[in-house]
Structure of ABC transporter ATP-binding protein:
Amino acid sequence: MTDSRDHAEDAAMPRRAAARTAKLASLPLGIAGRAVGGWGRRLTGQSADEVNATLSAKAAEQLFEVLGTLKGGAMKFGQALSVFEAAVPDEMAAPYREALTKLQSAAPPMPARQTHRVLAEQLGRSWRERFAEFSDEPAASASIGQVHRAVWHDGREVAVKVQYPGADEALRSDLRQLQRLSRLFQAFVPGTDVKPLLAELAERMDEELDYRSEAENQRGFAKAFDGDDQVLVPKVVASAPKVVVTEWITGTPLSRIIAEGTTEQRNEAGRLLAEFHYSSPVRAHLLHSDPHPGNFMLMADGRLGVIDFGAVARLPHGAPPMLGVIMRLALDGESVKLLEALRQEGFVRAGTTLDPDDVHAYLAPFVAPLTTERFHFTRRWAQKQAGRLGDTRGQDFRTGRSLNLPPNWLLIHRVTAGAVGILCQLDAEIALRSIVEHWQPGFAD
């Protein structure tokens, strides 16, 4: 006889491998397959009439429902992809945009009884005595946990992040299955191989499953930005392997600013995000590595509020100076020196011959935001870069196949690409060059 509690837990996070595999397999593979093929033909120059680029809203809802219900690795992967949607052609992305954005902040909650059980296991049977108030209704959902609003015993408003039981098992199962379905999601990350993204998620998941590690990361950021007039990182109040309690902060999520913000709000949010991204390695020797709009908010006092520190890159020596050197060489058109620097860092596949001018032509558009005092990040610009890299008949595509992304650069590359994706979603115009000159080692040297 099955305990009714098992049904409740399965509802919160299906754990049996067969059940989770069936859920993932229920995704609209036919429609997604046509999308990938259709977009590929569009990128190679075929007219819209020759391409079946129709994605139904129903398929998008199914994607959200499956990934959102599974949570774990599936939802985490959906969140990672959602920041890249600015690069997807509008006629293809429209039905999926809302569904992917939902993944940044929405998922079915686990039952209150289950939440209480986790809190008792992690904070002790008298866990309620630690709180003056505790809301059983979750205020937000994350990929492997959900957040409750509460009042700590000393009167501070706090956010209580509770990990879903079975999250570890589910995360590993999802990532194994998503490896097999990577082609389904390729359309959302143009010009990039999805498999390394999944491999990186797999490598970091054990760290993210231990909330004590997340708490340590957050303490590092909170200390580095304590009293800062531009960035607010809530302080950690208490932590355990599957529960973390932090100060509660309230602001306007970047997802809302993307949807309905004023030009001023968009530009300011973009500026603050860029400032945070480039200054963190210098100030905290850490890099926030989960860039999606649900993790950032514009506070009433004008600061950028930052949450969710489960994924963090530790940079004890700060950002690598060679990144700044490469950016500067590309900006200055020093093709030969640029190729030499890339070879030195392992960006060029062994045994390949490349024309320095082709390499410069490949990278130059990426440093275009640094060529002017202010740069306007738009979806159109992101789509143009995606089309350029994905055009199999173009030189940039051939050049890209000879380049390699070294493992030690993968995280920095992904986080920077994610931040740029948010800037494009924001449609922000910012003075990025001055920010990079101030914070990025090697750029102004």
Q: What stands out?
A: Residues 251-445 form one domain. The chain has three domains: 4-106+168-191, 112-166+205-247, 251-445.
